[in-house]
Amino acid sequence: xxxxxxxxxxxxxxxxxxxxxxxxxxxxxxxxxxxxxxxxxxxxxxxxxxxxxxxxxxxxxxxxxxxxxxxxxxxxxxxxxxxxxxxxxxxxxxxxxxxxxxxxxxxxxxxxxxxxxxxxxxxxxxxxxxxxxxxxxxxxxxxxxxxxxxxxxxxxxxxxxxxxxxxxxxxxxxxxxxxxxxxxxxxxxxxxxxxxxxxxxxxxxxxxxxxxxxxxxxxxxxxxxxxxxxxxxxxxxxxxxxxxxxxxxxxxxxxxxxxxxxxxxxxxxxxxxxxxxxxxxxxxxxxxxxxxxxxxxxxxxxxxxxxxxxxxxxx
Amino acid sequence: xxxxxxxxxxxxxxxxxxxxxxxxxxxxxxxxxxxxxxxxxxxxxxxxxxxxxxxxxxxxxxxxxxxxxxxxxxxxxxxxxxxxxxxxxxxxxxxxxxxxxxxxxxxxxxxxxxxxxxxxxxxxxxxxxxxxxxxxxxxxxxxxxxxxxxxxxxxxxxxxxxxxxxxxxxxxxxxxxxxxxxxxxxxxxxxxxxxxxxxxxxxxxxxxxxxxxxxxxxxxxxxxxxxxxxxxxxxxxxxxxxxxxxxxxxxxxxxxxxxxxxxxxxxxxxxxxxxxxxxxxxxxxxxxxxxxxxxxxxxxxxxxxxxxxxxxxxxxxxxxxxxxxxxxxxxxxxxxxxxxxxxxxxxxxxxxxxxxxxxxxxxxxxxxxxxxxxxxxxxxxxxxxxxxxxxxxxxxxxxxxxxxxxxxxxxxxxxxxxxxxxxxxxxxxxxxxxxxxxxxxxxxxxxxxxxxxxx
Lengths: 315, 455
Prior knowledge:
- The complex is a heterodimer.
- Chain A is an alpha/beta fold.
- Helix content of chain A is 34%, strand content 11%.
- Chain A has one domain (62-308): 3-Layer(aba) Sandwich (Glycerol-3-phosphate (1)-acyltransferase).
- Chain A has helices at residues 22-27, 41-45, 64-82, 112-123, 144-150, 158-167, 179-182, 199-207, 219-222, 230-236, 284-308, and strands at residues 86-88, 99-103, 130-134, 153-155, 171-174, 211-217, 227-228, 242-243, 264-267.
- In chain A, the strands form two sheets. A seven-stranded mixed β-sheet of chain A has the order 1-9-6-2-5-3-4, with helices on both faces.
- In chain A, strand 3, helix 5 and strand 4 (153-155) form a beta-alpha-beta unit.
- In chain A, helix 3 crosses helix 4 (112-123) and helix 8 crosses helix 11.
- Chain B has two domains: 3-343, 3-Layer(aba) Sandwich (Rossmann fold); 366-447, no CATH class.
- In chain B, 43% of the residues lie in helices and 13% in strands.
- Chain B contains 17 helices and 13 strands.
- Chain B has helices spanning 3-10, 25-35, 67-76, 96-114, 156-174, 196-202, 221-233, 250-257, 270-280, 286-294, 301-305, 314-331, 342-350, 369-383, 406-412, 418-430, 435-447, and strands spanning 16-20, 42-47, 59-62, 81-84, 123-129, 179-185, 187-189, 206-209, 215-216, 218-220, 238-242, 248-249, 261-265.
- Chain B has a seven-stranded parallel β-sheet, sandwiched between helices.
- In chain B, helix 5 (156-174) links the parallel strand 5 (123-129) and strand 6 (179-185).
- Mean pLDDT of chain B is 83; it is low at 1-9, 388-398 and 449-455.
């Protein structure tokens, strides 16, 4: 592909601060009562609820039954035969403790996060469940609200990420591009969007969890978007209403009509977040810098992988 | 806060407790629990409605939330701990105006009654609700105590609760020497409790909103009472969430109840659809609609870290409630509901004729505060009479001393001081000369080691 080699020249964007950041949400002293230091964070970590074997879903709403059902059928099919996922550097995913997996994001109904979760399940010597953060929008949309948590999705609230990383020591996938990544048109493929406001770096620093950048190839071609229909977006209340090879003319199932692009998932070496000392997340400059660095690493690796790729469909 | 300040907050133990909202389920249950504690000298309950549970030694005063009256009770009884269990957190049973009056104005009044430098109150415990946090789309999965609401409250009940907590916060700011505990409970569930959720779960099939399976947390009624009691025993300043361990999906809750889940409420225009259902008798309040859609989880770890052990997890709470639902029909009418009758209660509590058994056995009969006050008044009337006046059977105002039975007088004697006793002895000698009364007075006078004890 001709445009793949084109250098990405995007000046680092500086976003004005809007809305409360994680600092305001998590750490600020209670405005309700004169504050007093309560139990420490480690003390609280010991108080996590115990496991109840009779339960059918976890406290996050995750249903093992439904998950293993889809895992054995559709996800397995996509992983093995449709996308023929190739995994590189799986050893970079820590075997224990919390870790924040940061990936690029694309596709009308993005297949990237499930493939990352499946890759860890299949390839890692110590497979662990992965929590994927999704937009709050899905918690408010009927159907999605019911299904996504059961499949391991968690609303992308900084407090949720912190609890998963710090208290529960889980693997969390964040896709900092969010909808900016998924709604971009096919002509813009593999050009990473802005990485949010660096909230994910803050969350990782707070939890002292390493950041594992992931460069992922294939999702852009699996569900390319040719155009958006604004009127239908407003009518349906979706985040966006795309035209893909199979949607909307095949209806809702058409959302799952992926093209058989070859997937390559490359896990990059983890970036420890406790190297900048205590309360490094208060340094907004540092947070932005780290976020930019993570984005650059992913972008560079994506370009590198694209340079080596001979065919979109065969890899 | 420094360590020294924290230590001063640790403060002395509660001894004299006032419970507001005695007529609510929680006030009554808490009083029952506290009665068993011997170290508590006095338990006083106030409410405008009668208590719903049987009480042994708790004194009940029927009074609303007028702060002047409650202030007088607090000062007179030297109350050191006030527990406010009065908040209405379920809008099904109460009109919004009444709820507002009770929650906002009532809390303001109660707090005012405890305010001030001369107030004997050292600790204020407020039973609030997790409705404080609301239930919205962009909520965190677990609210911790220091998180503010992401959005301003939209339903009347939530608005009330936020305002009531605001009044408590202002009180805490004004009175930095007092311990203020705010307890935010998630939805309570239990055999003794009737809430909009227990009503919903009692239906043969549980209606839900199509396409949503919210996360739900419940706390057993025993744990709510337990946490209130914990707050009275310990001095914990600050906000505490109360919720059972574990967060269930609504589908799991309904599965535990063994009922079908029927998603009949439409995802759009849910409020409109709930209107006709209201008229059909299925009452779903607004704040519950938000919960049925988005659910809510609160972080209960702070309370656990500070020493409270929950008896039931959310799952066990639901399972216990399911057992109750299955046996409810069979047990209906077996036990008569308790009815408060003032005269009966006074008789049981203060009459010397009642044989004391069980917890109260062996304790000597104590006069009620009203009887003591009456006696003091009577003695005052005796005193005002000049001593040289002929000690005759002079006019007896109604309820005169001479109308009291010997037993009653004997019971009242220990509450009198020496001078009064001697005076009473003289009066008795001049009047009825009941041997039992004379002997008892002599015994008391002798016991106090007086040189002229027992003439």
